[in-house]
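Q: A reviewer asked whether we had any structural model of the full assembly, not just the individual parts. We don't, so I'm hoping you can provide one. Inputs are below.
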Amino acid sequence: MDIPNLHYINELSAGDLYFKQKFIAILVEEFPKEKITYETAIRALDYKGAVQIVHKLKHKFNILSMTSSYILAVEHEEALKVESIKFHVPFGRALLAIEEFLKSF
Amino acid sequence: MNCIIIDDEKAARAILAQLCSKIPAMEVLGEFDGAMEAIKFLNNNIIDIVFLDIHTPGLSGVDFLQTFTNNFKIVMTTSDTNFAIKAYEYEAIVDYLVKPITFKRFEKSIRKIEKSLVSAVAQTNNDTEVTTDTIYINIDRRLIKLKFDQILFIEADGDYILVAAIGKVHRVHTTLKKIKEKLVDTIFLQIHRSFVINITKIIDIQDNSVLIDKKVIPISRSSRPNLMKRLNLV
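A: Here is a predicted structure for the entire assembly that you could use as a starting point for your response.
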């Protein structure tokens, strides 16, 4: 599994420390809420809701340069559309990796 | 060029705002987490570019596209590459940015829009047969779109003109004569050597002056008959 990193954020901020800190703060604020929304949807077998939140979470994988996890998220989103949760466990691990990573800020 | 950002993700909005900040000609006038709020804003403001995420809550991006005609350029921003082909079915969509958006790709998109706006102005200048309800004024290398019905009057000011629009006055480096050629004479009329007015905005006419908004504008003796002819007098 790939490890979250700040490559994209560093490129985007181009030395703008204020933006970088502000952006990380947004991730720290936004990600846990999205993770809870995902877990709640899965528990309730709300596939439509799960598809929507996985679509949003996909972008977080992109932001944190997690290429393999992004591909996994795309597969998970498609599987959820046909009411399959076969990618739920690896997807959950990827979410956990982000959660751990964001704890360092 | 000014723009607004519509995306329900705060992080996505922050990325776009940061990308815009790197281009001096770009100004972000608003950020919205849903299309409904953006529509309210668009009804009261003139915008060049809308960055739109197709997956917005409430009113979807597709619904949003169907609400508006091409009053502004739309750049789609989404992780959903599947929408790319469908996106180009909409005339207003000029580009499609797949997240995560890099500055290089973003800059390319903005240059493309800039070119299309400039060529639209050039086309209007070259083809006098073309009549639209808008005019673009050049201020500090930014082309600002003004709808004719937003212009109250235009006043000569030395080498400049002052375009009094609803809520804002723009100072443009040109002459009254030149801008008059770009306006439609069914709405606009020169009533003094220093003033062209939008006759639909007249509040009242008293003696040798007209009142538009809160401005009293003189009517020259030679222009008065022409103005009176244009009014729907009882």
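A: Points you may want to mention in the reply: The interface with chain B takes residues 8, 11-14, 16, 19, 22-23, 26-27, 29-30, 52, 55-56, 58-60, 62-63 of chain A (CB under 8 Å). Helices of chain A lie at 7-13, 17-43, 47-63, 67-81, 88-103.
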